[in-house]
Design the sequence.
């Protein structure tokens, strides 16, 4: 873990986000940012991310961030936590490849990130994080306001088997329902009713 | 749908991918690309993407791409298909906001993308697509070789309810097992055993 406060060499100014990222061919680019994000009504698209060695930036270091950081780390991601203080369970989690940026978020902190997670408790800061992520075209989980982000963490059920983990994710736009369905699916996995070993002779 | 062949104003040369994207602050950046991607052993991380109005680029226009394109479009994504020829069901799917780039892939075709999908049938081309996605730090589904990509499409089960869709995604690293478990979960959703309506009085 990098304990020393980190600062980007050249932090982004808000005006830097007004145009398109400079590495994109100018003629083929539409503006990479929109100033306001409409609430999403369409269904979400479930994807399984292969996060090994990918940088995930979490802004905010409280209990929600702690739970999510453990999940990202379990998938092999490298973590950068941007937060003045850390939940004790995050501090325990961080390894030599991870960073703690011990201060409030500034534009540029998503440098190198593949995925962003914001849970600062301050909607204005969460919106700033979402704005930089939008500019970079990387997905951002906004823990305080699902529809102001571009990705959501589904409810999960998991079974460990000798041939690897089976993961079930449930998303319904209603977290309470998603959790209830995931609990049911967890029962199915644990009861042996779900076919976890389909390779047996038929 | 934009039927006229599209070409980036300034296609990327392979050497352009050697460094870091130019819009990232130089001092804070580690090389954005690795030349070879090790097979992933860690568990995948399930995420629900909110793709409304986000550009998804699909390279290859065959049957696999067609199935995936329908799913992306169902989640509200804009599509860019890069392929000399199109599966008939893709052609039917494309709306005025979508693009068909009627030729083979060239570097730069992922401009503006949030997510990439490659299913060209040619491992060398799929690798080129994955390489550009890696450089941009956007996730790439490699339909021909899961571990050479950075994301995978899970098996799915779905229930439509008056209060929205409930989506269950299953990933296990073994597609046959994932599909078998998802079929079981679909039975649970349809039988009424899964608690799709948890808001009733308790």
Sequence:
């Amino acid at each position: 873990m990098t304990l020393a406060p980190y600062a980007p060499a050249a932090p982004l100014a808000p005006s830097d986000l007004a145009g398109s990222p400079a590495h994109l061919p100018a003629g083929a680019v539409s503006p990479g940012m929109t100033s306001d994000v409409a609430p999403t009504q369409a269904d979400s698209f479930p994807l399984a991310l292969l996060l090994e060695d990918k940088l995930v930036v979490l802004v905010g270091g409280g209990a929600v961030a702690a739970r999510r950081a453990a999940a990202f780390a379990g998938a092999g991601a490298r973590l950068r936590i941007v937060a003045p203080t850390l939940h004790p369970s995050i501090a325990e989690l961080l390894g030599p490849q991870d960073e703690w940026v011990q201060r409030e978020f500034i534009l540029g902190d998503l440098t190198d990130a593949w995925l962003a997670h914001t849970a600062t408790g301050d909607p204005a800061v969460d919106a700033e994080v979402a704005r930089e992520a939008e500019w970079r075209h990387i997905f951002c989980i906004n823990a305080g306001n699902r529809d102001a982000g571009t990705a959501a963490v589904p409810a999960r059920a998991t079974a460990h088997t000798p041939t690897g983990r089976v993961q079930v994710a449930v998303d319904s736009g209603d977290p309470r329902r998603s959790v209830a369905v995931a609990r049911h699916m967890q029962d199915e996995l644990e009861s042996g009713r779900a076919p976890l070993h389909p390779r047996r002779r038929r």
The beta strands of chain A are 45-49, 55-59, 78-82, 99-101, 115-118, 139-142, 151-152, 155-161, 164-171. Residues 48-148 of chain A form a domain with the Rossmann fold fold (CATH 3.40.50.720). Residues 29 and 64 of chain A are 36 Å apart (CA to CA). Helices of chain A lie at 63-74, 88-93, 123-136, 175-191.
